[in-house]
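User: Can you predict the 3D structure for this chain?
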Amino acid sequence: MTRVWQWNRPVTVREVLEDLQQERSIAYTTVMTVMDNLHQKGWVRREAEGRAYRYTAVSTRPAYSAALMNEAWSTSDNPAAALVAFFGMMSAEQREALRDAVRIVGHDGEVAAPEPREVPEEPEAGEEPEPGEQPEAGEGAKPGEAPEDPRPEEDSGERGTEPGR
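Assistant: Here is the predicted structure, written as structure tokens:
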């Protein structure tokens, strides 16, 4: 599936075989069997082209990943605890991507256009910052303190829902 998703076009068994053979020795029949299994499972559709088939992914890799996550989450006997455990496994970059996705989807579940991230303009020397702007270090902040970060603090996930607590 990785090759089909990467190439994002209809592929033949021969094309996949030749690409895989650059990394390891593999038989044509092995690739053909895997592609047929993917077709039988509904992950790819195929169209005859001469004596061969061209295979196309039925969904994108992100859609497939989302379906897997939804399936795993919906089969949990405690979905909230499963989400807390999952979020606890995420890296800082993954948590930021999650925040971005929640902002895009919004609270009502409808997908909205992503909001551009604004970079505040620097006030000219001697000007006061506009209301809502963060003061520079030393301007409005106590000596030795950095200005306050306007982003919400990250949740450490410690709410007593971890196993053993």
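Confidence is low (pLDDT under 50) at residues 131-165. Strands lie at 44-49, 52-57.
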